[in-house]
Amino acid sequence: MEQAIGTAETVLLYMETGTPGKELDALLTDKSKSVGERHREMMLVFIKTQLHVIVPFGFSGDERGIQDFQGALMNLMQTVDLNGLDVQDLQKASEETMQVMLKRAFGIERMPSLELSRVQNLSARLAAKMQEPAFLDMAENLYKSRMAEIGSSDQFKQQQAKVALQDELLVPCYLDVLREANIPDFEPDDNGYVKLQTVVSLNAGDPVVSQNVSAALVAFNSRVPIMA
Question: 61-94 pLDDT, tens per residue?
Fold first, then answer.
C-alpha cells in the first residue's frame, strides 16, 4: 500500500510542477483538436507519467508494466479495508491528480461529485445507447464505408480513421446521455463529455459500472472494431 500511495502522490507532484503539467497546459490552448483527441492525449500524459514512476518499483517500462501495476493494485484493494486511512489517502491523491489534469487540460476548475447510484445510472444509459440496434447498424455501415475508401493496404490511414470514428460516433452518445439526464454541472458540451468520462473512469471498480461499460464496449466493438 505504501508503494501505491507513493506512486499516486509522485504522479500528482509531476502533474502540478513537472513537464507533464506543461503538456496539459498545451492541450488547453490547442483548439485544432477535438475534445476526444484532447481527452485521449490528457490520459496519455497520465499513463506516461505513471509509467515513469512505477519502473523503480520493478515494473517494466511498457504497456505490460502498466497492466501489471494495475493488476497488482486491484489485487491489493481486495485485501485491505476499503474504509481504512491508507485507502482514503490513495483515493485522495488519485482524485487530486485527476482534478489537476482536468483544470490544466480543459479549464475545469472543479470536478463535480456524483453519488455512485447516479454514476451507475449514467453508465447504464450510455451502455443502452451504444447497444441500440439502429445506432449499431449506422455505425457499422459508416465504419465499413470508411475502411473501403481507404483500402486494406494503408494500415496507418485505417488507424487514423478508426480514431476519428471514435469521436464521430461515441462523443454524441455521451452528449445525448447528458441531455437526457439533465444533471447540474454536467452540461451536454465538451467539458460535460470530459466530466462524464471522468466519473465513469473513477468508478470503474464498481461492479455495476464495470459491467455496463464492458457490455457496451463488447457489443460496439463486435460490430465496429475501432477501439484498441
Answer: 888 888 888 888 777 777 766 677 767 777 888 8
Residue 24's nearest CA partner among 58, 49, 61, 56 is 49
Distances in Å between the Cα of 142 and the Cα atoms of 90, 174, 204, 210, 223 are 43, 19, 29, 28, 11
Q: What residue type is 120 in one-letter code?
A: Q
d(CA 124, CA 112): 20
pLDDT band at 204 (very low <50, low <70, confident <90, very high): confident
CA dist 47 and 97 (Å) reads: 12
Per-residue pLDDT of 103-115, as tens digits, reads 999 999 988 888 9
What's the CA gap between 8 and 57, in Å, rounded? 13
